[in-house]
Design brief:
Radius of gyration: 53 Å
Order of helices and strands: EEHHHHHHHHEEHHHH
Distance between the termini: 169 Å
Strand order of the largest sheet: 1-2
Helix content: 55-70%
Number of strands: 4
Number of helices: 12
Shape: globular
């Protein structure tokens, strides 16, 4: 063996054949299985290599400066996190490049959108607009007082009418002065109104007309004691108030003068109350078509039908069983007329209140408003019922 050929390099990076003897497998078989030029790698190490992901730069660990756990943690950081609950902040990782030949992840198919049905708004809940408990309690109390005075002593009932007239005049004139600066003289109206009711009971229609004329004259004279500015509107409002409240109420006192006067008045009250109740009940439950929306938006045509139906049914019963010599067909006519007059009276006062810009004439009666808010349908109905009773069964 030539010693000079041992270890002689045959080229850069490897040793030539002279460096090996026959013991290292010289020949073609050896040349075919030897590793390529460069650093020596084993075959299984070459096949198991994977592309390393791109990771952020980590601080260098000094050699020998850390224990085994720190070195393992550093190795783990180079190949990705081993624990999901690491709290050490790290810089955001760059997106990894997909491995060659691997299928790209497909996004999950979106669930088909189901058409949602339109949300229907809830219908507004109907409301009575007043405290029904208080209204019923006050109504029952007034009814007891009226019926007791009506059937015990007629003169007491006349006094009840006079008191209601005076209070109604006070409410009306007060609202006129507050809202329109109209000063209708209350003193002559109150005195003349009470006298008008008594005159109608004592002297009938003739006494009522005389008292009405004297009351109007007293209003004209009383207003002369103040400056002339606004005189015309004040006396006009005073005469209107005298006719609207006490004169119409006088017809109730005139009903009382008949032998069955108490039953005639009771028939008048029943028909008016039943008409209002029927209009309210049917209108609240079935009302859809407005009767007079510019005057009273709450009134409906269905309510008017209910008022007529209820009043006619009550009229048949009252004329048949309460009025001497009365007949059922007279009750039908009277019930229809009462429903019409009560509705017109209610609309008339609603027109006045709308012009004044108020909801109620007063607050004396809880759940009802004022006295005038209860007299609105009674006042125009009184002369209608009085006239029909005189035509059907006479004045005595």
């Amino acid at each position: 063996m030539n010693d000079s050929s041992w270890g002689a390099p045959s080229g850069p990076g490897h040793w030539g054949p002279a460096a090996h003897g026959p013991a290292y497998g010289q020949g073609p078989a050896y040349d075919q299985g030897r590793a390529p030029a460069g650093p020596a790698y084993e075959r299984h190490a070459v096949e198991e290599t994977r592309p390393m992901p791109i990771v952020p730069d980590m601080p260098d660990v000094p050699a020998g400066g850390g224990d085994g756990d720190q070195e393992d943690r550093g190795a783990a950081r180079l190949s990705g996190p081993l624990f999901r609950d690491e709290t050490t902040p790290r810089a955001p990782r760059a997106p990894e490049e997909p491995v060659a030949g691997a299928a790209a992840p497909q996004p999950a198919p979106a669930a088909p959108s189901q058409p949602q049905p339109p949300v229907q708004p809830l219908p507004p809940k109907k409301s009575a607009g007043r405290d029904l408990g208080a209204a019923i309690g006050v109504g029952v109390g007034l009814g007891v007082v009226i019926v007791a005075s009506l059937f015990i002593v007629k003169a007491v009932f006349v006094g009840v009418i006079a008191v209601a007239v005076v209070v109604g005049l006070w409410e009306l004139t007060s609202r006129l002065q507050e809202r329109k600066a109209i000063k209708a003289p209350l003193v002559p109206l109150a005195v003349g109104g009470a006298a008008m009711v008594v005159a109608g009971y004592v002297r009938g229609a003739e006494g009522a007309w005389v008292a009405m004329a004297l009351t109007a004259l007293a209003v004209l004279v009383w207003r002369m004691t103040e400056p002339p500015e606004g005189y015309l509107k004040d006396v006009t409002a005073g005469v209107f108030a005298a006719f609207y409240v006490p004169f119409l109420a006088t017809f109730v006192a005139m009903m009382l003068t008949a032998d069955d006067g108490a039953w005639r008045v009771l028939t008048f009250l029943i028909l008016t109350v039943v008409s209002d109740t029927g209009a309210y009940a049917i209108g609240w439950r079935f009302g859809k078509h407005k009767l007079a929306p510019r005057i009273s938006p709450g009134k409906t045509r269905e309510g008017l039908v209910g008022a007529v139906t209820f009043a006619m049914a009550a009229g048949v019963l009252c004329m048949q069983f309460l009025i001497d010599d009365g007949s059922w067909w007279q009750g039908l006519v009277m019930g229809a007329c009462v429903a019409a007059s009560a509705t017109l009276g209610d609309l008339g006062e609603s027109m006045i209140k709308r012009d004044l810009g108020i909801k109620d004439m007063g607050t004396l009666l809880p759940g009802h408003g004022g006295i005038m808010d209860r007299l609105d349908s009674l006042l125009p109905t009184a002369p209608v019922v009085w006239l029909l009773q005189v035509l059907f069964v006479g004045s005595t």
